[in-house]
Amino acid sequence: MNEMTTSFAKAEALAAGLAKAPRGLIIDGKSVPAISGKTFATVNPATGQEICQVAEGGVEDVDLAVRAARKALENPAWRDMSAVDRSLLLNRLADLIERDAAELAVLECMDNGKPATLTQAVEIEGSIKTFRYFAGWPTKFGGETLPVSPRSGAKILNYTVREPVGVCGLIVPWNYPMSMAAWKVAPALAAGCTVILKPAEQTPLTALRLAELALEAGIPEGVFNVITGFGEAGAALVDHHGVDKVAFTGSTAVGKAIVRGSTGNLKKVSLELGGKSPQIVLPDADLDAAAASIAAGIFFNQGQTCTAGSRLYAHASIHDDLLARIADQAAQLTIGNGLDPSVNFGPLVSQEQWDQVNSYVEIGQNEGAEVMIGGGRPGDLADGFFFQPTIMTNAGRDMRIVREEIFGPVLSALSWNDADDLVAQANDSDFGLSAGIWTNDIKQGHRLAGKVKAGTVWVNCFNLVDNATPFGGFKQSGWGREHGRQAMELYSEIKSVWVNLS
To answer: I want to staple 90 with a disulfide (CB 3.0 to 4.6 A). Which of 101, 135, 140, 309 is the partner?
Structure first.
C-alpha cells in the first residue's frame, strides 16, 4: 500500500475501534464513565462526521480526579521517587510515544484536522522531544546554600529546597492538542507534581491516549488523570480548593475568567493566552525569504496558532511586491483531508471556528478592507470546515481585523513609511506574544527587537520554538513562561531552611 492508502486505512481501523464504546475519563489509573453517564461526540473536521463518543466529565468527576491526584501526591511510590527514577519514567513515556507515533499522528489528524504529516512532525515528534528534555531536569533542579548574615551573629546554615507545587490542573487548547499537553504535563511530572489534564472538548483523543501510555510507562495510578468535557469541567478544576496550581493555554477572555476563579484558595496560575503578532518588513529585506516565512507564519495550522503573524507591516516601497509573493506562496498550498500526504492545509477545527473566521472577513470588508485572495470556503470542498488562505489589504490600524485575534488563515496587510510610527503601530495592541522582523541590516534588527513589546521576537525567521528557551507573552498574552528552567519553576515551590549551628 502507498502512504495515502496506509493513512486512510489506519484512520478507518482507529475509527472502528473507537466507535465500539464511549471513551472514558482517566481517574486514578482507570478508564471510567462520567458519573452523570453523559457523553458527547468528537468530530472529524475534514468530514464533519462523528469519530466517537467521549465521556462528558462534570463537577463530581473533577472532584474524584482531584482526590485521586492528592492521594497520589502523598503516595511514597511517587513522593519519594528518586530523581533518577523520575527521569527514567519520563524517558520511558517518550519511548512509548515514539513507538506509537504513526498511530498518534493519524489520531490527531482525525480529531484536529491538521495534516497527518504535520501532526507527525510537530505534535508527535515535538511531544517526544518535550518529554525527553524535561526528563533531564529532575537530576538538575534543586536548591542552593546561601551566605546569610543574621543580626544575632549566630553561625547559621541557610539553604533552599525545591518542592512540587502539588496538584495541578492543566487546561489545554484544541489547536495543538498533544504538544500543548506535553508542554504542561512534562515539567509538572518532572517537578514531582500530580496532574489533572483537561483537553479541549473538540480534541480529547490524544490526551486520553497519552494518559494510557503514562500508565504503561509505570507512572503510578492517580499521578496523571484526564477529565474530558466542556467549560463546566474546566471551571470546576479552576474552582476546586484541592488544586494547587492551574496552567492554561487558550483565549485571553477565558484566561481572565481563570484568574477570577482561582482566588478561592489563591492557587498558582500560569497563562499562555492570545496573540496578534506583527510581521515587520523593512525595505532591505530578502523578500523571497520573508514571503515564504510570513505565509507559513499565518497559514500554518490554518492560522490556528497563538503566534500567527496576522498583522503585516510592509514598507510602502516593497508592500505590493511582497504581497504578490505571499499570495504566490498561498497558491502553492494543497487544501484537503490531512490523511492525504500531499495535503499541507487542512480544515478549521469546527463549524464554530469557521463561522468566527468568516465573520471577521465580513467585518473587515464592512470596515473598508479588501479581500486580495481567499475569503471563504474552497469551491471543491463542500464537506468539512475548510477556509481558504486569505489576505486582506487596505487594512487600517483601528480595524477589528487588525486589533482582534481571528485565529484563522487571515493576514491583514498594512504599509508604513515612518520607522517611529511603525514601532508605535506594532506595539498598539492588547497582546504581546511574539513578533517577526525582516531586514538585512542586523543592527536595525536588534534595535527593533529591543523596542517591540513581545515575549518572543524572531529576526529573519518565524515560529521557532525550543524546549530550552522560555516562551510566553507580555501584556494580555499571559503570565509566566513555558519551557526551560522557567517551566520547572512554575511547578515548584521554594523553601528556605535556617539551621542554627552555634
So the answer is: 135
Is residue 428 exposed (0-12), middle (13-18) or buried (19+ Cβ within 10 Å)? middle
The verdict on 258 and 320 lying in the same domain is no
Domain-located, residue 114:
yes
Bridge partner residues of 459 (DSSP): 437
Residue 81 sits at φ, ψ, to 5 deg, of -60, 140
pLDDT tens for 110-168 read 999 999 999 999 999 999 999 999 999 999 999 999 999 988 778 999 999 999 999 99
pLDDT score for 4: 60
- Whether 272 is a known active-site residue: answer yes
The answer to whether residue 15 is domain-embedded is: no
Of 137, 142, 143, 171, nearest in space to 157 by CA:
143
Q: Verify that 116 and 206 share a domain, yes or no.
A: yes
Question: How far apart are the C-alpha atoms of 88 and 73, rounded to whole Å?
Answer: 18
CATH number at residue 104: 3.40.605.10
pTM of the predicted structure, to 2 decimals: 0.96
Confidence of residue 5 (pLDDT cuts 50, 70, 90): low
CB 11 within 8 A of CB 110: yes
Residue indicated by cell numbers 469541567: 233
Dist CA 128 CA 134 (whole Å)? 10
Is the same domain home to 189 and 297?
no
What is the mean predicted confidence (pLDDT) over 232-252? 97
Domain, as residue range, for 333: 278-466
- Whether residues 265 and 292 fall in one domain: no
Q: In this predicted structure, what is the pLDDT of residue 3?
A: 63
Residue among 201, 272, 405, 489 flagged as catalytic: 272
In a domain, 471, yes or no: no
* Three-state secondary-structure class, residue 386: coil
In this prediction, residue 407 has a pLDDT band, given cuts at 50, 70 and 90, of: very high
Which residues have C-beta within 8 Å of that of residue 359, sequence separation ≥ 6?
none
